[in-house]
Design a protein that fits this description.
Oligomer: single chain
Structural class: alpha/beta
Number of helices: 3
Strand order of the largest sheet: 1-2-3
Number of domains: 1
Number of strands: 3
Length: about 100
């Protein structure tokens, strides 16, 4: 699948009642680029993984986003800007 095919598209959000992810303690997020869907997934995890203690973010590499995607800033810098200080204190944030 090409990176251009993986772009997030606008969609209607629906609230679905499901059991919380009660036992999920650590999440490792690969290829974080800072798109709205990346941020939406982090917010979903914070709200629904009630035992979440650690979020490890691995920003995407330059080769991943240089093909057809406008480069605004480095993915690591964007992850820091979007997430640092915005997660509950119970969740440790690690950005590689």
């Amino acid at each position: 699948m090409q990176p251009s095919e993986m772009l997030c598209r606008q969609r209607e959000l629906k609230r679905v009642v499901r059991p919380s992810h009660m036992y999920l303690k650590e999440v490792e997020f690969y290829n974080y680029y800072g798109r709205p869907c990346d941020h939406e997934l982090v917010n979903y995890l914070v709200e629904n993984a009630i035992a979440l203690e650690k979020l490890v973010v691995n920003p995407c590499e330059e080769a991943y986003f240089s093909d057809g995607m406008k480069r605004l800033m480095e993915p690591r810098e964007r992850a820091l800007q979007q997430l640092k200080g915005k997660l509950p204190s119970r969740i440790e944030l690690v950005i590689n």
